[in-house]
Target: DNA-binding IscR family transcriptional regulator
Amino acid sequence: MKRDSRLSGVLHVLLHMAERDAPVTSEVLAKAMDTNPVVIRRIMSGLRDQGYVRSEKGHGGGWSLACDLAKLSLRDIYEALGHPSLFAVGNRTEAPGCLVEQAVNAALDRAFDDAEALLLSRLGDVTLAMLSADFQKRLGDRRNRHRLETAHAS
Model:
């Protein structure tokens, strides 16, 4: 089963954008994330609807952050993406009348619900400012060599 990495990808893009003083085009972001600009525009439009980013058209246009990173949590971004599934594991539903399947699914549902609540709580505790600070710490003396256009070049 393929994992949904949109949350990770969007967080990645937002942190790159936080390093820029000017808007970033969908094409530049797509190249950095090895995807199509249409995918970037679709994802970013959902974030724009929430007021997290803004877009500017024309020469010098592109995407830029529209909010304070300290007020934006990972949970906020997760919700702006439409609440993608957090777990790849699911219940068997081939025999809904089977009492064993019902017992198993009830136990798994409780466990999944508890795990999801904990994960969402933790996502709410982490802000993009915290991720940015971690990135800055990791960047160290490479500051002048880290550029969005080349950070992901093979």
User: Anything to note?
Assistant: Helices lie at 6-18, 26-33, 37-49, 74-80, 99-125, 128-139, 148-151. The longest strand covers residues 53-56. The chain has seven helices and two strands. The chain has a mean pLDDT of 89.
